Amino acid sequence: MTVYGIKNCNTVKSAVDWLKKNKIDFEFHDYKSKGITSAKLQEWSKQVGWESLVNRKGTTWRQLDDATKEKVTSESSAIVLMQDKTSVIKRPLLEKNGKVITLGFDEAAYGKLLL
Asked: Which of 3, 6, 9, 36 is catalytic?
């Protein structure tokens, strides 16, 4: 299983701590240091929808100018933004065998899915 996120994100930290506490093996992929391919974003988009991948509630989105926000109207425009500003990708995203398991962190949901 791979956890995708940003290491200094509090939500990602909570998810990683939960996984460690429950002795669940995972690899961590940090968008900031490793980036993310458009192919990977397209795979996820087909599974959960590009709208779910763009975190419109986060600081990065709120700091974008209105013109940039208004351009995000399709999968392709969202992918361009997510590659340019990886902090706008909702996190953490858990993936196993090429499938998105869950997006975001909810302790109860993790318990049902992973224990």
From this structure: 9
Q: Domain ranges for the chain, please list them.
A: 2-114
Q: Which CATH number fits domain 2-114: 3.40.250.10, 1.20.120.330, 3.40.30.10, 3.40.50.1240?
A: 3.40.30.10
Strand pairing report for 93-96 and 2-5: antiparallel
Q: Report pTM.
A: 0.94
Relative to beta strand 99-103, strand 2-5 is unpaired
DSSP letter at 64? S
- Kindly give the confidence (pLDDT) of every residue in the chain, 115 residues in length, as a single tens digit, with 9 standing for 90 and above: 999 999 999 999 999 999 999 999 999 999 999 999 999 999 999 999 999 999 999 999 999 999 999 999 999 999 999 999 999 999 999 999 999 999 999 999 999 999 9
Residue 9 annotated in active site: yes
